[in-house]
Amino acid sequence: MSQQTKRVLVTGATGFTGGALAKKLIERGDKVVALVRKSANVKPLEALGAELVYGDITDADAVQRAAQGTQIIYHIAAVYRTAGHPDSYYEEVNIQGVQHVIDAARKHGVGRTVHCSTIGVHGDIEEIPSNEESPFNPGDIYQRTKLAGEQLFAEAMANGLPGAIFRPGAIYGPGDLRLLKMFKQVKRGFFPLFGGGKNLYHLSYIDDLTDGIILCGEHPNAIGERFILCSNEYDTLKALTATIARQLQVKEPTLSLPVAPLMVAAKMCEALCKPFGIDPPLHTRRVEFFVKSRAFDNSKARRLLGYEPKIGTDEGVKRTIAWYEENDLL
Description:
- This protein is an alpha/beta fold.
- The protein contains twelve helices and 13 strands.
- It has a domain at 7-178 and 201-234 and 297-312: Rossmann fold (3-Layer(aba) Sandwich), CATH 3.40.50.
- Helix 1 links the parallel strand 1 and strand 2.
């Protein structure tokens, strides 16, 4: 595979995954163009030497400007589950934004476009482990719009757009803040395992994930395909919290509580808060974290792309904790 310098567009480069991808690409010699909003913290990208194009994924003209002259587009930008956004905003970013990327790739003759989806499109899985062909079962507005964006991109590939789709597992590692709350609670000795922590949880360590993303952008076998990118192992939520506790040298969580009362409380919170545009203190999706299983098969990526995750859960958790401690986050 050629290691010649490429001009590459990364959307979402101020986020965790997009930022890690941009850093890896620049460090190996590629020229990275980053589409960034004016409100974003661009200092890390400036320090790396990325070329910044100011704009938003919802702005078709901005996406066109950023894509001009690039050989590969890595479309990572998305709106995740953040407070206060109406459903229409998820549609603008996670669906219409995908169309803007498709249009720009076609107009500028981009050689390869890679779209980031999510394993969340499978929702609460029935088949364990699930794979790329398993049924879709999105459970919230984020997952529904990510699925719609993925299907839009898949249709474009079917109509000649050279590209690939990847669905990452739960992304973690140095730089991640989404799982910080769980690490903090385990350290403080209070992480109740609602439902007993029997549900399965599948991680994607950031360095392994970015390796897989680059394979989607460069390997000839990736064109026209969808890949699940996750670690080679998965386990129960209880086992994951035990690993975190062991690396933190604290007692592992053992308190098991029934999940049904918590779900009732979450539904009541949402029903009361939504009419007033208030972010509920408790979401049903947070309760589902304790009951929905996530377990996937990455063998397609390993077989077709040579994808080989190197960091197991023990080592990944250890490195993540070290970063949290270095940054006084724990």
